[in-house]
Predict the 3D structure of the following.
Amino acid sequence: MKKILMLGLSLMLGSLPPSLSAHHNFLAEFDPEQPVQVTGTVIRMALTNPHARLYVEAEDENGELVQWDFELASVSALFRRGWRRDSLEPGDTVTVHADRARNAPNVANARFVSLLDQNGEEAFRFGSPQE
Amino acid sequence: MYKLSTVLPTISFVLLLTSTAQAQWDLHMDGVPLLPDGSPDMNAPAPRKADGTLDLSGTWNWIHYNPGGVQGRSVGEPVQPPPGVAPYATFWDQGFGYENGLPYQDWAREERERRVANFGIENPDSHCLPLGHMQFHTHNQPREIIQSEDRLIILYEASAGVREIFLDGRSLPEQGTALPYWYGYSVGHWEGDTLVVVSNNFRDNGWLDFYGSPTTDQLVITERFNRPTYGKLEIDIIIDDPGAYTEPFGLRVDQEILAGEQLIEWVCENEQSVQYFNQ
């Protein structure tokens, strides 16, 4: 039920990027010419300011498990757009479209987050996927 | 791509979610003028204190007239303000509405270019420090005005900023005599229904906008607050900094009320971004 409500909220609020925020210039940290798409398991969500952070474990190209650190907008910005404390929980499967950090591996700025249910169907989305 | 069987029931949920979302946000609508449909009447008369003084209190959201690019940057042709009104301020570039940009002194122009080239990593905002008046006024996070007889307090959700404006009749201290304030020292007085606020004694090396238009410790900011209706706040601003600009210039900020809303706590913590900034 929670996930269905969240899906509805995201539709109502439109395709607002989860990373839309000030605080620092996006280009100071991230490279829009290096997009990445990751599907993995939520480790935890840090509801912090100036940026919330989503930690996801996923397999790299060698099949090794690595931890991704995704930067999102501020918590207040996310909450005003429908995100809630239990929107994502440890163990959830998510797909994230993001732009890589310039100076760190496995760090990226999330443009789009999609939660998949146990059947692999999308149950929650936030932001706009990259083309 | 959504399955139709999923989309149709979801859309019906959307219609229900308006009230659900408001309930989750615990809106407090006491005293909010309402239209027959229950929505806030933004054109209702502005509220007043018991003594008839205009009341600027409320939670306010900056109106970003100009189209937003990446991270909300203003792009395209500037939206023109009404005749006689200064160009609209923007978060990223206060000169956006000026055909030739701001009247920088040479060093100030060069400094701004340096800050832009450096991706603005020295912006106080990037280090959880106070943003400065203009970035606060035009931030996409709301601010709350709390007005009493002798104080106007502005709480900025962004970076948990706090401004105290003295309305008790005290004089503005001479420039250079007060401590150098991040927020400046502010005093205000009423001219009819306009609150005129003058601020000085700012710290040096300030940022007028996200691109880094500089300000110095010679800065004086004059703000004229008007509330023509319940839902609208208009702030006419004069930036006078002979240390960085060849002449004073004006900017206009419009805000709309977020009826019944409150700020969300915003403490700058756990900052992990700085380590990744492109040095």
Observations:
- Chain B touches chain A through 50 residues (CB under 8 Å).
- The two ends of chain B are 40 Å apart (CA to CA).
